[in-house]
């Protein structure tokens, strides 16, 4: 079981993952739309592009730019099922549970909030409560515990 802080620290050890940062256009988009809208977009992207057990274009479904969530997905290794398997041991051939989707969205939003705040944006202390449960232990469909 790992926390968001632990996951983000581990990701920063990867030269590839550490190179992703919000652009000014991304920050402006976040300011215009607000974090609740960004979170809603993240939930939708994960549910439609990452959660299904079979993804025909797996490994190519997440653009490298165009939305803050896309950058966060690459920075957090949540861009395709191959990366989820490599970094978080989430099997490719199973659909993601609602809990797994929630945890992924929480990780992505934590990364976005941190990036946004690094450049002078401010989201507030509420993020600590909303995104603190990435590492919450859950059950696999077969009843085994995993982290």
Query: How would you characterize the largest beta sheet?
Result: 2 strands, antiparallel
- How would you sum up the global shape? globular
Number of strands: 2
Helix proportion = 55-70%
Give the class from helix and strand content and strand pairing: mainly alpha
Percent of sequence in beta strands: under 5%
Order of helices and strands: HHHHHHHHEE
Domain module tally: 1
Strand order of the largest sheet: 1-2
Structural account:
This protein is mainly α and 147 residues long. The chain has one domain. The protein is 55% helix and 3% strand. It is built from 8 helices and 2 strands; from the N terminus they run ααααααααββ. It has a two-stranded antiparallel ribbon. The protein starts with a helix and ends with a strand.
């Amino acid at each position: 079981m790992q926390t968001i802080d632990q996951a983000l620290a581990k990701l920063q050890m990867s030269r590839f993952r550490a190179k992703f940062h919000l652009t000014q256009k991304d920050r402006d988009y976040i300011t215009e739309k607000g974090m609740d809208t960004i979170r809603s977009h993240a939930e939708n992207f994960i549910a439609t592009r990452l959660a299904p057990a079979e993804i025909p274009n797996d490994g190519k479904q997440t653009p490298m730019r165009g939305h803050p969530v896309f950058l966060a997905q690459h920075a957090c290794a949540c861009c395709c099922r191959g990366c989820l398997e490599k970094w978080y041991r989430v099997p490719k051939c199973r659909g993601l549970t609602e809990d797994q989707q929630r945890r992924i969205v929480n990780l992505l939003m934590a990364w976005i909030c941190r990036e946004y705040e690094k450049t002078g944006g401010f989201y507030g202390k509420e993020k600590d409560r909303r995104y603190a449960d990435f590492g919450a232990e859950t059950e696999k469909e077969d009843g085994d515990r995993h982290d």
